[in-house]
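ARCHIVE CARD
CATEGORY: sequence design from structure
SOURCE FIELD: tokenized fold
FIELD CONTENT:
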């Protein structure tokens, strides 16, 4: 009894017959050979070193990933003279909102945000619906040419947008080849009405046909998820008198809510950050990505009244970083609010092992 009390006072857990865990380990080690003892020592050393090593790796990765965001926040709220002060590293010496205000006016922020949300959210919602229907068809139905068509979907993932940008531009510019005919029949005014360049239709039409930005990957995600659902769900719906479409609406969509959210968030981010496709079909800076692309010229016009003024890159860092911060803030807010559901959707959609 005294032995148990001494072990408990020393913080050791008492196991069986009044022996502590350390005492049992010593007894076991007495019956081991040298190789087994060396293995146990290496294992114990690894268990002590690995948490420290893991912390160093995670801390380094977090710093690399968060460094641009920290620097953006620091620059967006510091005065211009702080850029020439070597003692200012992270915390501004002169806190100001002037840089943000000037950048917002140069970007026409609120109108640009509204236009971006109109294109971004609208196209994302449409594309999620069309890609879900397409993915469900590939996952559950058998038809001729299925493998060939799915191979084309995979090509949509592999082939960059730059390859099809010119044909797409010609289609939208001449309304799929019909504009010359309309123009000859009804005049130039009628023909120019069918020019889709600088129109939201250049973004909505591909989304409506499951051919928008990164649509191939979204179809693949839905296909993988629907293939993982039990076939008995559909069989039960068919027995209750549901057709394929009603089964998809009533049974499949409720079970695929997490995948719908995941694909929607992916689509929002890709449409939000896209500037290549937008710059191909839009001649005006109507989206957030295009504003960032041309922010240097816009800032010169806003600050100095001329786009030809020569200003060093170091002097423009504050406004450029403020513009980047304004552009990513809506996405960060959205991710913080939906992070839990996004992670769940990633796990259930087949993107992780």
């Amino acid at each position: 009894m005294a032995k148990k009390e001494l072990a408990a006072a020393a913080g050791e857990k008492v196991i069986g017959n009044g022996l502590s865990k350390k005492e049992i380990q010593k007894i076991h080690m007495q019956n081991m050979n040298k190789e087994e003892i060396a293995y146990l020592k290496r294992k114990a050393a690894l268990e002590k070193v690995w948490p420290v090593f893991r912390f160093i790796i995670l801390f380094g990765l977090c710093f690399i990933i968060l460094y641009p965001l920290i620097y953006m926040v620091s620059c967006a709220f510091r005065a211009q003279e702080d850029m020439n002060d070597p003692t200012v590293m992270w915390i501004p010496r002169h806190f100001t909102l002037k840089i943000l205000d000037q950048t917002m006016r140069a970007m026409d922020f609120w109108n640009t945000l509204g236009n971006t949300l109109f294109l971004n959210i609208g196209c994302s919602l449409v594309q999620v619906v069309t890609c879900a229907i397409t993915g469900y068809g590939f996952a559950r139905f058998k038809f001729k040419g299925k493998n060939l068509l799915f191979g084309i979907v995979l090509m949509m993932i592999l082939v960059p947008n730059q390859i099809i940008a010119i044909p797409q531009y010609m289609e939208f510019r001449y309304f799929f080849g019909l504009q010359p005919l309309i123009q000859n029949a009804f005049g130039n005014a009628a023909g120019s009405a069918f020019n889709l360049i600088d129109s939201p239709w250049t973004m909505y039409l591909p989304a409506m046909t499951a051919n928008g930005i990164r649509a191939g990957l979204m179809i693949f995600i839905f296909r993988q998820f629907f293939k993982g659902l039990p076939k008995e769900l559909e069989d039960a719906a068919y027995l209750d008198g549901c057709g394929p479409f009603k089964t998809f609406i009533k049974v499949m969509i409720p079970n695929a809510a997490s995948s719908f959210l995941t694909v929607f968030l992916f689509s929002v981010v890709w449409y939000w950050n896209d500037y290549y496709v937008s710059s191909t079909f839009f001649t005006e800076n109507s989206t957030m990505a295009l504003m960032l692309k041309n922010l240097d010229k816009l800032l010169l016009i806003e600050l100095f009244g001329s786009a030809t003024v020569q200003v060093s890159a170091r002097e423009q860092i504050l406004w450029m970083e403020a513009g980047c911060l304004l552009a990513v803030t809506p996405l960060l807010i959205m991710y913080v609010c939906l992070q839990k559901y996004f992670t769940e959707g990633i796990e259930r959609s087949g993107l992780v092992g």
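CARD ANNOTATION: The longest strand covers residues 14-15. DSSP finds 18 helices and two strands in the chain.
SHELF: design records, drawer C
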